From TrEMBL:
Disordered: annotated segments: 65-86
Compartments where found: Cell membrane
Protein name: ABC transporter permease
Similarity annotation: Belongs to the ABC-4 integral membrane protein family.
Membrane topology per record: Multi-pass membrane protein
Claim: Transmembrane is one of the keywords in the record: yes
UniProt keyword annotations, A-Z: Cell membrane, Membrane, Transmembrane, Transmembrane helix
């Protein structure tokens, strides 16, 4: 093809877009909003990546060498205290010269105001603490308070510690990097025997050689007092998933609207082929139109994205999905990516339609322009079957081989998107049987307009599939993602409830845990059996590498809850044994070498092996093997036969009075834990859905406006045949409702297949099928919105078309 021919085809494409701009309205809107979503989410992601995380203050900036326990390579999800330094490490490092042992433990004023961390005063001079009033503690009943609570030198306050409440005299008030209550070294060792940090004046290389592989040695400068704020990392993950979903939605919808726009122009394209345009020229013209639209839509799309990005950042911060101070500022590369994405999506969207249009033979031009003889190409068949088959294979493979991974948000979001995409590609082939199913009730009326709606959908399967595509993705995402989130939430809640046995539970209130004094008082209440549950950690070597597991310390005999046992007897738990998960690959009676949370090495016998759960496997040991852990998470309380519930409840509340504890039923305890764990997940999923559903809702309206405007001639023919205005409007409304019905059936198949695979995976993990509680209010609301938008977007152009005389409307041409 010569240069002149190329220029001519491109000029024709430009003139076509300019002359037929109303036919491209829906595609232009879809592209503009797709670019806007990409620009806004990209700007938010770029700002999250470029923002410095909120770092915890330095704890030992003045120390030469600091020895800490080796952090677990993969920390467990369940909160548990970090492991301490082993006695062997402490002895070897102490051989280099004087050391200062720092201990970090629970200490909180009984009033609830002030710090919740206790530390040893000798370590304060390495952490840049300065006394602002009073003096350093000189006796074991004296403390220094840093960071609030209104403490004044010379006053006495009650301090809650792991061992219980104690009265201390405030010797001084200090200022430093974080709130803390400082005790003398001797008192700190009594309250928390575990050594958390060792400070040495020897150089780092010498200390590292002495500590060996059992500890981490580093200069004091730069070591933080706690983990950095990880909300930025969470925001990056959330924005990444939202961007992926938004990109899928944009490609899917834009491809459907382009295919619909090309299908509307079959008569025009057939005439071009008849007058001599080659297949290559036709494809080039359509691609040129797509390029023009892509460039034209990118500029307003970027402007909308830049305008919406700050509001998006404020929304994330207000919902605690991003840290305070996070702001979205425009940057160049997200806008460049958004523009490139808009152009690429436009070209990809029209590519398949242009190839189909290019295959029209000139001698078949007029016949092809009137009736659809083949609704799907071989390439579309292969692509649709491949994507659907891949999604179904992922469902089956995950349920059989790695069922726990199926509950990961990234996994079920991807599967749902693939199923929706596969159904979208196969939609033209599925439309006839689905349309017959959906319109079957209409056939019972025997009205002419119902027959027209039914036959029109069957004769124009591609058109029906294109108008149903936004509905498919809107309802499919709503049911699939919200249903999966609810199913995982309910399964985790059931698992959490199963962990809490007994009739009552004692829980901390305004404190990170229960003290030993609270445990002792509850155990002394007559008529009950108390089972404290204390979080700790257990480290074991697997494949030569140390792996740290969350563990739970309970009395001998195991917890009150019914554990998912694979082998052994949990009631056989003693100080010399351990209950492990299946992934440990141990048998009952095996000996396993473990390191406790305080660094002590023990060899314990496996008393029972548990089935894998949705959360990390909880290892069970006795309180003796808690490794210095001093705070109890909760206490399960079982009423002994003959014990009055009301009397026991009164006695338990009296026993825990003043210890920042209260009594609850296990169901309330698990519900509170579930609420804390899933609040962010639900908010994040609603954010991902909200962005996509708003986009789809607008595109539904734009697509159906295109469809209704294109049907003015057919409506004119109906009027000439004797149809009244009311009958014409009923046909228009029926066709739009049929498109919604087809999209709903396809969405139901895609989403229910995804939920079915997730249900099977959860059953494989827990041994019980989770409850399927679909979010009916959300589904009903989205469905009603789709119906309202579809009917309104179809009737408004139809009403406008009725003002045109029937003879003029029937003779209208493209």
């Amino acid at each position: 093809m010569g240069n002149d021919a190329r220029i001519g085809v491109l000029t024709l494409a430009l003139r076509t877009v300019r002359a037929r701009w109303t036919a491209f309205t829906g595609t232009f809107i879809a592209l503009t909003l797709g670019v806007a979503m990409t620009a806004a989410l990209g700007s938010a992601l770029a700002s999250a990546i470029g923002t410095e995380p909120v770092k915890a203050p330095e704890r030992y900036p003045r120390a030469v060498s600091v020895v800490q326990p080796v952090p677990p390579p993969d920390p467990p999800d369940t909160p548990a205290p970090p492991p301490g330094l082993g006695p062997d490490v402490v002895a070897r490092v102490s051989g280099l010269g004087p050391v200062v042992a720092d201990r970090v433990f629970y200490a909180q004023p009984a009033t609830g105001d002030g710090p919740v961390i206790g530390r040893a005063w000798p370590s304060a001079r390495y952490a840049a603490y300065q006394i602002t009033a009073g003096r350093a503690p000189s006796g074991d009943r004296e403390i220094v308070v840093a960071g609030g609570g209104g403490a004044r030198p010379g006053t006495s306050i009650t301090v809650l510690t792991g061992g219980g409440p104690g009265t201390y005299r405030v010797a001084g008030v200090a200022h430093g990097p974080e709130p803390a209550i400082f005790f003398t070294g001797t008192e700190a060792a009594r309250l928390s025997p575990r050594v958390d940090v060792l400070i040495s004046a020897a150089p780092v290389p010498a200390v590292r050689d002495a500590a060996g592989t059992g500890a981490l040695v580093a200069p004091g400068a730069g070591l933080r007092s706690g983990p950095d704020d990880d909300r930025l990392a969470d925001a990056e993950v959330l924005l990444g998933i939202a961007g992926g979903v938004a990109g899928f939605v944009a490609v899917f919808v834009v491809a459907s609207t382009f295919a619909f726009a090309v299908a509307q122009r079959r008569r025009e394209l057939a005439l071009l082929r008849a007058v001599g345009m080659t297949a290559r020229q036709l494809r080039r013209m359509l691609l040129g139109e797509a390029a023009v639209l892509g460039v034209a839509a990118s500029l307003p799309g970027c402007a909308l994205g830049v305008a919406a990005a700050p509001a998006l950042g404020a929304w994330l911060t207000a919902r605690d999905l991003a840290p305070p101070g996070y702001e979205v500022t425009p940057s160049v590369w997200p806008l460049a990516v958004a523009c490139g994405t808009g152009l690429t999506v436009a070209l990809l969207g029209v590519w398949a339609a242009s190839r189909r249009a290019g295959r029209i033979r000139p001698v078949e031009a007029m016949r092809e322009s009137v009736l659809e003889h083949r609704v799907m190409t071989l390439a579309r068949w292969l692509a649709g079957l491949a994507i659907t088959g891949t999604a179904l294979w992922m469902l089956v493979a995950t349920a059989l081989n790695s069922p726990q991974a199926a509950t990961n948000r990234k996994q079920y979001v991807l599967v749902t998107l693939l199923l929706i995409g596969g159904m979208g590609l196969l939609a033209p082939a599925v439309v006839p049987p689905v349309a017959r199913l959906v319109t079957w009730p209409l056939g019972r009326f025997g009205r002419p307009w119902t027959t027209i709606v039914r036959r029109g959908a069957l004769a124009a399967a591609r058109r029906t599939a294109s108008t149903a595509a936004p509905v498919l993705i809107t309802l499919g995402l709503t049911v699939g993602l919200l249903g999966a989130t609810a199913m995982v939430k309910d399964a985790r809640a059931a698992e959490e409830r199963a962990r809490h046995g007994g009739d009552l539970a004692v829980v901390p209130v305004g404190a990170p845990g229960l003290t030993r004094a609270a445990v002792a008082r509850v155990e002394a209440v007559p008529g009950v059996r108390a089972v404290p549950r204390t979080p700790t950690t257990i480290t074991v070597r697997q494949d030569g590498e140390p792996v740290t597991y969350a563990a739970e310390a309970v009395p001998p005999g195991g917890p009150l809850s019914a554990l998912p046992v694979l082998a052994g007897t949990p009631s056989a738990l003693t100080d010399d044994s351990i209950i492990v998960g299946r992934e440990w690959e141990r048998r009952v009676g095996d000996r396993v070498d473990v390191r406790l949370a305080d660094g002590t090495n023990r060899s314990l016998k496996v008393a029972a092996v548990l089935r894998q759960g949705l959360a990390d496997d909880i290892v069970h040991v006795t309180a003796r093997n808690a490794g210095g852990a001093v705070l109890t998470e909760s206490i399960d309380v079982q009423l002994l036969p003959g014990t009055d519930r009301a009397a026991a409840l009164t006695a338990l509340r009296a026993a825990t009075r003043g210890l920042r504890a209260d009594v609850a039923v296990p169901a309330d305890l698990s519900a509170a834990a579930e609420g804390r764990q899933n609040r962010h997940a639900r908010t994040g999923m609603l954010f991902i859905l909200g962005v996509s559903l708003l986009y789809c809702a607008i595109v539904i309206a734009a697509t159906l406006v295109m469809a209704a405007a294109d049907r003015i001639r057919e409506q004119g023919v109906l009027r000439l045949a004797g149809a009244t205005s009311g009958q014409v409007l009923r046909v228009v409304a029926g066709e739009s409702l049929l498109a919604v019905g087809v999209g709903t059936v396809l969405a139901a198949f895609a989403s229910l297949a995804s939920l079915g695979g997730l249900w099977a995976a959860i059953r494989a993990v827990t041994g019980e099928g989770p409850g399927v509680a679909l979010p009916w209010p959300a589904v009903g609301g989205v469905f009603a919105l789709c119906v309202m938008i579809a009917v309104s977007a179809s009737l408004l152009p139809a009403c406008a078309g009725l003002r045109t005389p029937a003879i003029d409307a029937a003779g209208a041409r493209e």
